[in-house]
Amino acid sequence: LKENNARRLWHPMSHPAESLANPPDIIVEAEGVEIIDVDGHRMVDAVGGLWNVNLGYSCQPVKDAIAAQLNRLPYYSIFRGTTNDNVIELAEMLAGFFAPDGLSRAFYTSGGSDGVEVALRLARQYHKIRGEAGKVKFLSLKKGYHGTHTLGASVNGNANFRTQYEPLMPGCFHTPAPYTYRNPFNESDPARLAQLCLAAIEDEIRFQDPSTIAAFIMEPVLGAGGVIPPHESFMPGVRALCSKYGILLIADEVITAFGRTGSWSGSRHWGVQPDLLVSAKAITNGYFPFGVVMVADAVAEVFEGDATGKGAIGSGYTYSGHPVGAAAAIACLKETERQQVHLNAGARGDQLFSGLQALMARHQVIGDVRGGHGLMCALELVSDRASKAPIDKKTIGKVHRATYEAGVMIRVSGNNIILSPPLVVTKADVARILSALDAGFASL
Ligand code: PMP
After folding, report:
1. Where are the bilayer-spanning segments (predicted)?
2. Looking at residue 317, what DSSP letter applies?
């Protein structure tokens, strides 16, 4: 297996030679919040799959729903003229779930990148229907991550995800993220930094001319960029600027929806109602590929009230509204609400965050600890706290390996360690994650 993996398989976000030099771990089984590799090594999955397995790997009602649906109707398209019972039931449930966020219509996709693409396209179309055809540009945050399709890549804040594919979509502009540890303003106070970042957004809006901007897309808590929670004034401030200048606010909640931040959605965490919300990942907890774009009433009415044909939606995927995915999503949503997983995410997130702060006091290599909003945390590693020089790949790789040997899977992204365990972790699981990390750092 290991040899064929290296010879035959190109992995996402990796150099093809990487598998030869450093073969990936082959995961063959999972149970509860644990994963088991091909050599029988069992670990707590502190990554939660890829920020998505909120309910853990043994959620029987989800497995049963998938099996039953496979036997009843494994697939049928929901393109013009046909639909299925599951997608209707799910849309009704999602409208209820996202009602406090002001969102009531569901457009299905097969994942997060598709959802971002659809949301950006809908934003342009919304303005076109309203006769504002010049509103085509997109603003987003540096450090933001919005998937790998062309529009999503164009709004990605990390240049590493853009440069090899340029020229990408013109008209996409990126403003500073509220990242206290490193920012162009040298400002470490979160409230003051939020104000500076908001001022930079307003400057960019004026510079570009608001009549040319379709939407601002942002993650309520930046995830893949290294878990960057903003000050509480930031997202409401972005909402206010979008409303002031007639720009749609797209919340990319591929990671944050369904409880990860300790609230049911990331937008609700900050008391904001977006115009469009993209979700995927935990909507099916990893049990089936699926995604959704939720649409606010006021936006939906523009499409639905259009009599000229401009409101016809030109996006759609063979697997939009897949009946098995929808069955999985219905079961996941029921379990998510029944278990009130957001409450555990909040409590265990606090335990994890304070434990990580204690690790920082013991290990010089930890330059910054971020978290405090549910089960999304990151450690930023530096070779020297004063200069904040990022730690080298080999050293962080050593921490990764030693933590693995100590029984916990973590995610390394650049010089960050990212932690996003299932939302059903226990106090003992979080203690295991912390002690394995302690062993990982002690190995240096
Ligand atoms: N947006 C965000 C915020 C994400 O974190 C991700 C995936 N990590 C995506 C979009 C893309 O989702 P997918 O991988 O399902 O295409």
Report:
1. none
2. -
